[in-house]
Amino acid sequence: MSQYRNDIEEVAGLRQAHEGTWDAINPEYVARMRAQNRFKTGLDIAKYTAKIMRQDMAEYDADPAQYTQSLGCWHGFVGQQKMIAIKRHFGTTNKRYLYLSGWMVAALRSEFGPLPDQSMHEKTAVPALIEELYTFLRQADAREMNHLFRELDAAREAGDEAKANEILDKIENFETHIVPIIADIDAGFGNEEATYLLAKKMIEAGACCIQIENQVADEKQCGHQDGKVTVPHADFLAKVRAVRYAFLELGVNDGVIVARTDSLGAGLTKQIAVTDEPGDLGDKYNSFLDGDYIDSAEDINNGDVVVKSEGKLLKPKRLASGLYEFRKGTGFDRVVLDCITSLKNGADLLWIETEKPHVGQIAEMVNAIREEVPNAKLVYNNSPSFNWTLNFRQQVFDAWKEEGKDVSQYDRDNLMSAEYDDSELAAEADRWVQEFQRKASAEAGIFHHLITLPTYHTAALSTDNLAKGYFGDLGMLAYVDGVQRQEIRQGVPTVKHQDMAGSNIGDDHKAYFSGEAALKAGGKGNTMNQF
């Protein structure tokens, strides 16, 4: 028997046991409310979605074509509409996630106002957004099921048993809008205890996957900004363990940790690693420091620091800020060491922040990592900070040139120009962009593709277009043609915004509670009925 029918029978038994005092309670209404509220807590969500993510990781290991995707969402409504659209267009939410971007929390959710991605926003804004996203996704479940319940009642009223059974089957096999979220904890917002406390809040809000980066918490920069400062491995691994302890304490045994390295673009470190013997992890970290090897104490000036590295005395180059520089050209090797170390110490997935979307570059690093950890796989940022058009036009230009194809009609440095938009090269570059995720997952170990802040840009672009027309010559036609008519033509359910906000759910609840006396909002006078 299905859960829906089980709940009806259970509540019918409870009603009977109360000897008439619960006779006004309809067992099927209770079953409906339970079905609309499947996840009672954020921990229920975290445990459920962690299992999904683990299964997806195993399926990717067996077949790299089975990669996963997400878009960054800065508000619960944006996340809700994304998942509603995915179910509507593809029939399933399988292998589609949510991403919570620290960049968007800083830029859009801080009480300080818009901030750069430097961990200056309130740390509580992160779990608050996770909770908000899942609140809206649960409401998406409730709304869709409410429609099914109304259809079921209509079929029963019409005496159409076959239709009623068909709808019951949809109710019993309903696929939730609740999906895994990869949530950005930045560099942990403090020491390892602070990281643990914030991770707990994020997990309690519903996060099954936490992404943490190896930058210094109080010097944290966006991965696409300059001035990034990394920490020794021991410091980073302490925070990885803090996140794991948080998962285990809360019973989310399948929780996933994404270890992010910014070493490819980070040329600085705040501290010299502790090392006990040649070749240990601290010694390897220090071996990348830029500086001069010295022979005697006479080569040491006041305030200089000297490190014994690889059997020699190294005087690291120290900046006026007190930071130390890494040698130029060591980023690749530091990334590989970071990733291998993270995976061997409890991380599940990797994030390598790169300066361009290039499958060959990513694959080179992943292949080096897989020499020691064969199942290493990435979460990769298909970043809006990349100029995708220019990058891929230049990649095609370089490939064609290497093949001996005539590219004299193209100016490589000016390929972003609109004059090339209809060219053969531009068309080929667009094909490369279209195939990037599939190819990178097959060749470069990318398990999860995300765009960190796409909905930041879509909100700005759509608002710009509407404002340009509405406040210009088009007036109201800018909204009618550009928004409302498109919602109608494309079947976007927000055109009935009252329903999307829960008015039908509320009306039906009122009927449960008040019967015929219920004052409903969705009657003939509701203008929503025009659609």
UniProtKB/TrEMBL annotation:
Cofactor: Mg(2+)
Top-level division of the source organism's lineage: Bacteria
Binding-site positions, Mg(2+): D184
TM spans (from-to): none
Residue sites binding substrate per the record: S101, G102, W103, G223, H224, R260, N381, N382, S383, P384, S385, T452
Record keywords: Lyase, Magnesium, Metal-binding
UniProt xrefs under Pfam families: ICL
Alphabetical list of InterPro entries matching this protein: ICL/PEPM, Isocitrate_lyase, Pyrv/PenolPyrv_kinase-like_dom, Pyrv_kinase-like_dom_sf
GO biological process: carboxylic acid metabolic process
Residues at the active site: C222 (proton acceptor)
Catalytic activity: D-threo-isocitrate = glyoxylate + succinate
UniProt cofactor note: Can also use Mn(2+) ion.
GO MF, any single term: isocitrate lyase activity
NCBIfam families listed in its UniProt record: PRK06498.1 (NF005074)
Protein name: Isocitrate lyase
Species for this entry: Alkalilimnicola ehrlichii (strain ATCC BAA-1101 / DSM 17681 / MLHE-1)
Organism lineage string: Bacteria, Pseudomonadati, Pseudomonadota, Gammaproteobacteria, Chromatiales
